[in-house]
Structures are given as C-alpha cells and as structure tokens.
Amino acid sequence: MIPLAIARVGETAAIRKISGKDEVRQHLAELGFVVDSDVTVVSEIAGSLIVQVKDSRIALDKTMANRIMI
After folding, report:
1. Under 8 Å between Cβ of 4 and 65
2. d(CA 11, CA 27)
3. Which H or E run includes 38?
4. Which domains does the chain show, CATH number per domain?
5. Containing H/E element for 56?
6. pLDDT for residue 40
7. Can you tell me the distance from the alpha carbon of 61 to that of 45, in angstroms, rounded to the nearest whole number?
C-alpha cells in the first residue's frame, strides 16, 4: 500500500485503507472515498491533487491525500 499523495497523474487505483480520526474518515466517506472504490489522479499542483472518485472531481491537499492508502 502507498499513500494517494505519491500516485502518478493518470493512475487509477482502488482505495485499500483510510486513516485518521473518525470525523476525517466520515468526511472522506461522504465525498465518496470508501474502501474498494476506484480513484484516479487527474492532476497534481504543488503537492495538492485533483482526483476523480465515482462521478466527481475533488481537490485534496497533501495531508488528506496521505491518509488515503491505495
């Protein structure tokens, strides 16, 4: 498993684990980041990522992206 923060642009991977406090995990789940769902890195700017999960594009800072393991 590696953190989403170091995935390459264009890479699609399945989410394996989400770490952090319960509130953080719940917030990410509400955005669509759940275990076994696919996530695609659309672009990366200064460490922050734009990812596509389900039918939405979401911007994540490096701290949040490091909590999502693929």
Report:
1. yes
2. 23
3. strand 38-45
4. 4-69 (2.30.30.90)
5. strand 56-60
6. 96
7. 10
The pLDDT score that the predictor gives to residue 37 is: 94
Q: How far apart are CA 51 and CA 2, in angstroms?
A: 16
What's the predicted TM-score (pTM) here? Answer: 0.89
Distances (CA, A) of 22 to 29, 31, 62, 65: 10, 14, 19, 16
The pLDDT tens digits of the residues spanning 5-61 come to: 999 999 999 999 999 999 999 999 999 999 999 999 999 998 899 999 999 999 999
Cα 54 to Cα 13: distance, rounded to the nearest angstrom: 12
Q: What proportions of the chain, in percent to the nearest 5, are helix, strand and coil? A: 25, 40, 35
